[in-house]
Amino acid sequence: MSDSFKAVGGCRCDTNPVRYEYTARPAEVHYCLCTDCTDICGGAMAIIAVVDKQSFRITENADKLRTFHSKSTCHRHFCSACGCHLYVHVDSFADFELVHVPTLDRDQDVGGKPDRWVFVRSKHPLLTLPEDGLPRHQGWANSGEPVAA
Ligand SMILES: [Zn+2]
Ligand SMILES: [Zn+2]
């Protein structure tokens, strides 16, 4: 879709923040409970927008970005000054960047709503999932049947 969609976000630096944008609606937005997301973010879940790589770009202060390989196939991009985790590239989703939705500016239209939970098998025991009726997948949504957790 090539409407005039655009969403912008960035890191938490007060001066010279890393800024990014994507200019097409995400292919998908999901809640991720994998330990790779949660342990690195220090949260019980991640909200991920799966954004076409062609529509995503860093618009300011790219020099502050650092990449950590939390797995050999999982490349996570952080601001080196404030520590904010902005987006992740996963080898199996080569054509996409996985944007951490809370790093979008709060007034932004994300471009989609979460429509599934993934990696439910890794859910932290202190987290109770809401009865939202969304499909819950043990791993990636395309790697198994939904489970009624
Ligand atoms: Zn920063
Ligand atoms: Zn994850």
TrEMBL record:
<dbReference type="InterPro" id="IPR006913">
    <property type="entry name" value="CENP-V/GFA"/>
</dbReference>
<dbReference type="GO" id="GO:0046872">
    <property type="term" value="F:metal ion binding"/>
</dbReference>
<keyword id="KW-0862">Zinc</keyword>
<feature type="domain" description="CENP-V/GFA">
    <location>
        <begin position="7"/>
        <end position="116"/>
    </location>
</feature>
<protein>
    <submittedName>
        <fullName>GFA family protein</fullName>
    </submittedName>
</protein>
<keyword id="KW-0456">Lyase</keyword>
<dbReference type="Pfam" id="PF04828">
    <property type="entry name" value="GFA"/>
</dbReference>
<dbReference type="GO" id="GO:0016846">
    <property type="term" value="F:carbon-sulfur lyase activity"/>
</dbReference>
<dbReference type="InterPro" id="IPR011057">
    <property type="entry name" value="Mss4-like_sf"/>
</dbReference>
<keyword id="KW-0479">Metal-binding</keyword>
<comment type="similarity">
    <text>Belongs to the Gfa family.</text>
</comment>
